[in-house]
Amino acid sequence: MIDVGKYSAILDARLKELEALLQEVDAELDSHQSKDWEELAVEREGDEVLERRGTDAQAEIAKIRAAQARIDEGEFGYCVECGDEIAEERLKLVPFTPFCHTCAAKHD
Ligand SMILES: [Zn+2]
After folding, report:
1. Backbone angles phi, psi at 75, to 5 degrees
2. SS3 state of residue 106
3. What pTM was estimated for this model as a whole?
4. Which residues touch 85 (CB under 8 Å, ≥6 apart)?
5. Helices 4-31 and 37-72 meet at what angle, rounded to 10?
6. Structure confidence by residue, pLDDT tens digits, 83-104
7. Which tens digit of pLDDT belongs to each residue from 24-80?
8. What protein residues have CB closer than 5 angstroms to ion ligand 1?
9. 60 by DSSP, 3-state: which?
10. Which residues lie closer than 8 Å to 47 by C-beta, 6 or more apart?
11. 16 CA distance to ligand 1 middle (Å)
């Protein structure tokens, strides 16, 4: 039996972390708008890294929200594709995963 409460807490904590990260990224990108031309080339590179981190964070947030919706529906911990219980070992590594090991392998 899966300890849903435990994973719910893990997901909440991770979501807060990601939202804080997104705010940092946004603030950092905004602060670059008012810089001198000389610094711009260096910052362009930095901006790409920042934007990538922002995009990754947004993608993870979407997955976590979907996992939280499955918790609300009582479906958390079960594969959305085949309905099998997702192994605890797998949930520990990727708490928001919607797939069991077998189905995840098919999607990769
Ligand atoms: Zn499956």
Report:
1. -110, 0
2. helix
3. 0.84
4. 2, 77, 78, 79, 100
5. 160
6. 999 999 999 999 999 999 999 9
7. 999 988 887 766 656 666 667 788 899 999 999 999 999 999 999 999 999 999 999
8. 79, 81-82, 84, 100, 103
9. helix
10. 29, 32
11. 28
